[in-house]
Amino acid sequence: MNSMAVGVDIAKLVFQVHYVDQETGEIVNKPIKRAKFLEHFANRAPCLIGMEACGGAHHWARQLVKMGHDVKLIPAEFAKAFNIRNKNDAADARAIWLAVRQPGKPVAVKTETQQAMLALHRMRQQLIKFRTMQVNNLRGLLTEYGEVMGKSRAALDKAIPAVLERVAERLPAVVIDSLREQWNGLTKLDEQVAQIERRMREWKKEDKAVKAISEIPGVGLLTATAAVATMGDPKAVPEVR
């Protein structure tokens, strides 16, 4: 007998499951509280469980796989094509149930280590975004007082000491102090970015896959770590001979 297919629409507090009972033929579409979700599948025969590849999906997939279930993470766009009703939890769970039974390429389930590396990439990206915003904000504020600086970070660092000295003659000290603090804050952001990159290099030393990809000409630290962290289970990638 084939494994029973189950569609799961995950959420923060209440999940929705949809399946057809193989013994009775009953169509089941019901909510399950988050705390009871794993308990619902704990004593069941291995199922084919489909979930959208969204926030939290990789965590639940890992837990269900440990119980012996086959889990497929489905791209949201693919599952959406099977939702023929108004969008709600019950309809979404049914759409996922339909989608998981169709041929298609699921999203590979990531390990906790891979997700941790992706978290480092996201934090680094966010810090760089903050830093760029800070530079642009300083340039914009000082332009209001007739001080124009180059667009690059190097141009800002070179010009701003003299700029602050000039505008200090006309502006209140509280403003000058705040501008100087904002400028000094860029150095702290630099240090945070550098620290994350050091941690990535440490991970590279311990991960064989990252080392292997890094040996490809033109592939650096960021590309190698992001590639390994994004691809999910390396065993799911077929070997090329």
TrEMBL record:
InterPro entries: Transp_IS110-like_N (IPR002525), Transpos_IS110 (IPR047650). Residues 6-145 form the Transposase IS110-like N-terminal domain. GO terms for biological process: DNA transposition. It comes from the Bacteria. GO terms for molecular function: DNA binding; transposase activity. Signal peptide: none annotated. This is IS110 family transposase ISPfa2. It comes from Pararobbsia alpina. The lineage of its organism: Bacteria, Pseudomonadati, Pseudomonadota, Betaproteobacteria, Burkholderiales.
